[in-house]
Amino acid sequence: MTFNPQAEATAREENNAELIAILEETGQSDAESSWDLDIFNDEERGRWVAMVSDEAIAELSYRFVGGRIVLLTTWVNPAYRNHQVATEVISHALDEIRQTGKRITIICPVVGEFIERHREYIDLIDKVHPGSGAHPRARKESLIASMEHDLS
Question: In terms of pTM, does the model score above 0.85?
Answer without folding.
Answer: no
